[in-house]
Amino acid sequence: MSFGLVWSGIVSFDRMLLVLTTLVSLEAIYLAIFIQMTINVQQQSLEEVEQNIDEIQEDIDEIQEDVEEMQEDVEEISEDTHEDEVRDVREEKTLKEMHEALMQLMRDVEKLQQKQ
To answer: Is 32 strand, coil or helix?
Structure first.
């Protein structure tokens, strides 16, 4: 269209080139501005994502520490339970031995009574 204006003699060739290059330059400037705005928005979004990732990592670390503490507690409880079971077995054995000793003592007392 711009070359048609030159051929028809409405506009000189130099003026047409001046207007055409000015329009193309303005278009490039606007495109550069919009591209930079898009890059800035994307950069801000990436920074927010990085911040969220850092917060999530901190939460994961805290959860890991809690899990380790709970595992230690479970191990302690397991050890205590084992000790209680061993103590119960010993007590039961001692009670059986005492019962047998008392039974033997009663038999001995009965034998002594029968001899008198």
So the answer is: helix
Positive/negative CA dihedral, 50, 55, 57, 60: negative
* Location of structure tokens 């039974």: 103
Tens digits of per-residue pLDDT, 43-58? 999 999 999 999 999 9
Contact indicator for 21, 35 with CB cutoff of 8 Å: no
Q: Model-level pTM?
A: 0.47
Structure tokens belonging to residue 108: 């001995």
Beta carbons within 8 Å of 12's beta carbon, 6+ residues apart: 6
Q: Where along the chain do its domains lie?
A: 2-115
d(CA 36, CA 21) in angstroms, rounded, equals 22
Match 């030159």 to its residue by tokens: 6
> What pLDDT digit, counting tens, does each position of 7-18 carry?
888 888 888 889
Angle at 16 between CA 15 and CA 17, to 5 degrees: 90
